[in-house]
Amino acid sequence: MADTDITTAHEVVVDDLASPADAEAFRRLNERWITTFFTLEDEDRRLLGDPVGLVVDPGGAVLVARLGETVVGCVGLMPTVPGDFELVKMAVDPDHQGLGTGRRLITAALDRARALGAQRVLLETNSALTRAVHLYETSGFRHLAAHEHAPSPYVRADVAMVLELTD
């Protein structure tokens, strides 16, 4: 990694979604990675079309990673049932992957989940996304068996994971 890459990673700031431009970046970043590997599904379109109404307003958060004025990553923390939040729509711009932005987003989302009183954070992903699965595992998430979680609204989701925030 070049010195400029290290400097860039330290300049990334994680903050709340704060504008329509941030919401557009959230949509754009997620659509880019989803359509690179999979097919955009109805549930993707629904969440990406209204992150404030479907994630923030019900008591969750959408966090964005900024490098200067540019949003280079994002993640949602969506309340599901009391005490549970789902980590949704995490994406990092391909030009900024491998610099620690994803880990910063997860750390910020987990800190926010704790502040919101979460007992557990769940997520769904795909086994083909080995770097993402590894990131979640090293962040403390454990794999769930099929009988431990509800069916996913996403055809591509073949991995479910959870992080227990309370002992």
Description:
- This protein is α+β, with helices and mostly antiparallel strands.
- The chain has helices at 3-11, 20-37, 42-49, 51-56, 101-115, 130-138, and strands spanning 12-16, 61-67, 70-79, 84-92, 120-125, 142-143, 159-164.
- It is built from six helices and seven strands.
- It has a seven-stranded mixed β-sheet.
- A hairpin with a 2-residue loop joins strand 2 (61-67) and strand 3 (70-79).
- The protein is globular, with a radius of gyration of 15 Å.
- Mean pLDDT is 93; it is low at 1-7.
Keywords:
disordered N terminus; 6 helices; alpha+beta
Q: Specify the structural class.
A: alpha+beta
**Would you report the number of β strands?**
7
- Sequence of strands across the biggest β-sheet: 1-2-3-4-5-7-6
Oligomer: single chain
Query: How would the global form be characterised?
Result: globular
Helix proportion range: 25-40%
Distance between the termini: 38 Å
Series of H and E elements = HEHHHEEEHEHEE
Describe the sheet with the most strands. 7 strands, mixed
H/I helix tally: 6
* Overall radius of gyration: 15 Å
- Strand content is 25-35%
Name the poorly predicted regions. 1-7
Mean pLDDT: 93
Question: Summary?
Answer:
By secondary structure, the protein is an alpha+beta fold.
Please write out the topology.
Blueprint: H1 3-11, E1 12-16, H2 20-37, H3 42-49, H4 51-56, E2 61-67, E3 70-79, E4 84-92, H5 101-115, E5 120-125, H6 130-138, E6 142-143, E7 159-164
Parallel strand pairs: 4-5
Antiparallel strand pairs: 1-2, 2-3, 3-4, 5-7, 6-7
